[in-house]
Amino acid sequence: MNRIRGPMSPGVIERPSSVTDQVFAELYHRVISLVMPPGTKTSETEVASALGVSRQPVRDAFYRLSKAGFLAIRPQRATTVSMISERAVKQARFIRTALEVETTRVACERLTEDDLVALESILDQQQQAVHQGDKMVFHELDDMFHREICERAGVGYVWRLIQEHKAHMDRVRFLSLSFASQRAYDDHIHFFEAIRRRDAEDAVHRMRLHMMTILEHFPRIRAENPEYFDDEEPTTGLV
User: Which of 92, 155, 158, 239 has the least C-beta neighbours within 10 A?
Assistant: First the structure.
């Protein structure tokens, strides 16, 4: 399979196990990084030719991307990258906050010293990504940090639930990294230190603050990138 993007840092991303997984990962990367911005038209034939694979794994990857909210597939019409929905972003933030707050409480009770060492290693890699200005690696490490907390706390199913809802939020998160990657990293450090102290209340507080930042950044991101957002009326409140 032809690779269109450059190599990722070793150990950052789990290697996809099938051709469909590889196609999905490649297209996910392109959508998140805005190589394929909202509104981009694409087709199974075009992607299959570009990646050197048959159409079936592309069709399967398209279906997964549509279920995740990244693609709009309409019969007899072009498949397009979905526009970013402000309502979907805010709903995803609400859902994710509720799930990760409870995960945080469990993590404070269950994480071992080995778990903390593994999380600290991810944070070290994130710091390097900040210094190198590598937004995609930072974004992937961000997901890894949160996923590992779920997995190591024994509630890996929570991360699978989060993934089902966070497509629109992911693109806004990526856009925010042009000016807020250091803030996101600092949030992780404060949150991690609270978990290390087994201070559940402070850890929950830090998680809530971390999840609120997307609401703080949203007006700037939308104002700077109006072409990426749908024409729905701006929403008010948290959801």
Answer: 239
H or E stretch covering 37: none
| Residue 84 DSSP class | B
For position 8, what pLDDT does the model report? 33
User: What pLDDT, in 10s, does the model give residues 197-212?
Assistant: 999 999 999 999 999 9
Q: Where are the domains of the chain?
A: 19-81, 86-228
Q: What gap in Å lies between CA 170 and CA 167, rounded to an integer?
A: 5
Average pLDDT score, the chain: 90
Q: What is the CATH number of domain 19-81?
A: 1.10.10.10
Is this prediction's pTM over 0.90? no
Residues 79 and 43: beta-carbon distance below 8 Å: yes
Give the angle 163-167-171 at the CA atoms, nearest 5°. Answer: 130
Distance of CA 144 to the CA centre of its chain: 9
What phi, psi does 80 have (nearest 5°)? -130, 155
The answer to whether 133 and 185 have CB atoms below 8 angstroms apart is: no
